[in-house]
Specification:
mainly alpha; elongated; single chain; 67% helix
Length: 109
Amino acid sequence: HSMFYFAAFHETKKMAPKGQEAGPMVKIGWDLGAGFVAGCAAATANNPFDVVKTRQQVGAASAVSNHAVAKEFSVAKRSLVGWMMELVRTEGPQALYKGYFAKVARLGP
């Protein structure tokens, strides 16, 4: 997550105006914008892993009686790649980005 964030932040900041032409408000605007772009890049790279982690955690809760949702995800032991492939096969590639909008929406100022 941080690897994508800092790389995107650094690359975005390279496009900012340099020298005296950029006043303090412009610099603050570029910092905020670069932070948002970096947050979106990190969320895009990280979201599939978060979805799989959450599914695994819910599956582990299947030991709790009467937990219907957990039973759905506790079918078999799978690896990270196995979970991703199963998600894409059953729900389509968009399943890896469930919750993406909420994650990105919290990045705004």
